[in-house]
TrEMBL record:
GO terms for biological process: 'de novo' IMP biosynthetic process; purine nucleobase biosynthetic process. It is an enzyme of class 6 (ligase). Pathway: Purine metabolism; IMP biosynthesis via de novo pathway; N(1)-(5-phospho-D-ribosyl)glycinamide from 5-phospho-alpha-D-ribose 1-diphosphate: step 2/2. Belongs to the GARS family. This is phosphoribosylamine--glycine ligase. Keywords: ATP-binding, Ligase, Nucleotide-binding, Purine biosynthesis. GO terms for molecular function: ATP binding; metal ion binding; phosphoribosylamine-glycine ligase activity. SMART domains: GARS_A, GARS_C. The lineage of its organism: unclassified sequences, metagenomes, ecological metagenomes. Pfam families: GARS_A (PF01071), GARS_C (PF02843).
Length: 185
């Protein structure tokens, strides 16, 4: 398993070098034909991965992080709902290369009002009363639900309501998982 092959050896390795780790350890992993491989470690939440985790987390994230800081994490019960979540990134045209900033955005409130959806701002700012683009990755749009197809449908429905010139998002996010679920049920 990923925990046994990647995570635990990393934690054990730090401990053996008298570097006990306290905090959040984000592990970027890719699944290859030869199994899971580590891409990176970060001492922070992953972006946009966290946007799919937070809606499923039950409890107060600040309390969980305080317990970690104070060394009481083992006394904290981490719970998540049994649901599924999917996050889509809406990006500015040209991203990851050059892109326009200051482009007016519409549909945010409409998207965010969908049940089981949260729109996370990333590259946005106010220009007077308007919200405009200010970065390449403009939004993370997360949908969640009791099953994966519902979570995916909500995310795509919400993303389709947000509009700005030259915006784009991938239309294949979740396809592999959906195919797997449909062929293994």
């Amino acid at each position: 398993s990923i925990e046994k092959e990647i995570i635990q050896p990393t934690i054990d390795g730090m401990a053996s070098e008298n570097i006990p780790y306290k905090g959040l350890l984000y592990t970027g992993i890719i699944v290859t034909e030869n199994g899971p491989k580590t891409l990176e470690f970060n001492c922070r939440f992953g972006d946009p991965e966290t946007q799919a985790v937070v809606p499923l987390l039950e409890g107060d994230l600040a309390e969980i992080m305080m317990a970690c800081i104070e060394g009481n994490l083992s006394k904290t019960y981490l719970r998540s709902s049994n649901g599924f979540a999917l996050c889509l990134v809406i990006a500015s045209g040209g991203y990851p290369g050059s892109y326009k900033k200051g482009v007016k955005i519409s549909g945010i409130e409409e998207a965010d009002s969908i049940d089981g959806v949260k729109v996370f701002h990333a590259g946005t700012k106010f220009d007077g009363e308007d919200i405009v683009t200010a970065g390449g990755r403009v939004f993370g749009v997360t949908g969640w639900g009791a099953d994966f197809p519902q979570a995916r449908k909500r995310a795509y429905e919400a993303a389709g309501k947000i509009h700005f010139t030259d915006s784009f998002y991938r239309n294949d996010i979740g396809n592999k998982a959906l195919k797997y679920l449909l062929t293994n049920d």
